[in-house]
């Protein structure tokens, strides 16, 4: 028994880590955790004999300020080669300061890069009822951060779901369902693969 756990720990420590720091869009809200796109990514990497393990630190409801408070400990714990940063949706839904969100994202990217990790920033958009002006400012914030930092960037991680929301989105109109998770991963994969 002891040998088994030692062996398991060795396998984990020998693998390079991918840290996913996100909110409900990556935490598997409303679906089984094993159906979430980060878990599917972990399975894909294992199937393809890639020497990576995914540490999903996503928490439903999390904002960029909460992510910033956690990131030092997470970087120390996982020593990731890649950080996938998927935060900001809850800042937008709560109408929090866009400039503060940008500052938080910049700080998390700085900390990740200082720890030796590459970064993939995933953008998100607020629902249309927030108005076109706020929606554009919110969307542009992610692009500004990505350009300023020179990091890999996907402007709207849910883009492939938008043409068929009835199929891919839960009844709350916000969260992707289980069927959507492989679609999200397929959309993100080319950028992820390029960073491995």
TrEMBL record:
Q: PROSITE patterns annotated for this entry?
A: LIPASE_GDSL_SER (PS01098)
Q: Name one GO molecular function term.
A: phosphatidylcholine lysophospholipase activity
TM ranges:
none
Q: What are its GO biological-process terms?
A: lipid metabolic process
Query: CDD domains attached here?
Result: Lysophospholipase_L1_like (cd01822)
Q: Which residues form the SGNH hydrolase-type esterase domain?
A: 20-178
What is this protein's record name?
Arylesterase
- Species assigned in the record: Bermanella marisrubri
